[in-house]
Amino acid sequence: MRATPPDDVPFAGLRRHATALVVGLLIVLGIFMLVPDIAPRPSGLPPVELVHGRILEIMPTSEPGTPDVRIEVLEGIPGGPRTGEVVEGFIQGPSGLESRPEFVVGDEVIVNISTDPVAGFIAVNDRYRVPTLALLLGLFAAAVTLVGGWRGVRSLVALALTLAVVVKLVVPMILAGWEPAWVAIVAASGVTVTTFLLTEGARRQTVAAALGTAVSLTLVAVLAMLFDSLARFSPLRGSEAAGFLISIGGTELDLGGLILAAVIFGALGVLDDVTITQAATVQELYESDPRVRPWALVRRAMNVGRSHIAATVNTLVLAYVGASLPLIVLFAAGRQDPLLIVSGEVVAVEVVRALVGSIGIVAAVPVTTMVAVALIGRRLPFVGEGTGIRHAPGWD
Question: Alpha helix locations (H) across the chain?
Fold first, then answer.
């Protein structure tokens, strides 16, 4: 058999990277272009439409109720102001008059337009920040590509795939009445397998990481359902967003399942990191010492995993604390009993989310380690044979 010339090796790697990128991009485009919109159509117009506009003039007001801004509509809406039309309205802010920004002429803004034909109302709601966010996104992509190389580029494609699945499949299916928890479990498992294949390729450690993630996600789902029932939360689960869903006619949504789905996706981001790192650790430890026995390999990998657990659990808890910090400070300022504050639904929901997700992370380390060690030396369909290292006695 003719050996592959050394000069062809870089080109073979380039072809593999290019193939993975093309496949990933085709999947993303296919989801956006071929998957139909299954979300139910609203029964009527939303109470408020958002449009993109530009401030042309800020007018002095002589009496209450008089418009104080003139706006050019940059992107019109059906049944409302058309593109290029100039309308008059009021300056408010994201939270009404209490948080009114200092707008100036020329600012691009988000405009709220009431659809009520009797009590129509036009108000400047907030700044239009898409260009700023696009710049930040470009810097993020450049940093990932510069440091991560081809694997970084593939991770960006995997990120686009995850967002496509959430936007085009998960959210519409939940709105259509599907059980949110099962939608989250199936979607999360599918996204995990696909992104692992895109970023890591078809390897034994990829299989081990995918299996470890699936088992850990199942544990997270079971614990979340159990403690949601034991805590006896109200249907809103302390969420203002859930209350808003009900107010706009989303009463058929399973709000408890929606919170559970949020727990699953929240844990998934950290679980992916833990499982793929642990599976790669097992493989690297084995390749560095092929004579190691299975249980010795488990022990060494767990030594690494324990350090990872400490960091990632803290990361997850801090993420939930960060999201709830203003609320925690507000409660602390009232100088109430901390146990009573924690027992309240708004805080207790976040505690359940953080601790359930953390338990899933802790379980992911030993589960993935055991699976990765069990797969060493086994032939798997569609998976590369690895390094060809001769196994020590005790592996077969």
Answer: 8-34, 130-165, 171-175, 180-200, 204-231, 240-247, 255-288, 294-333, 338-343, 345-375
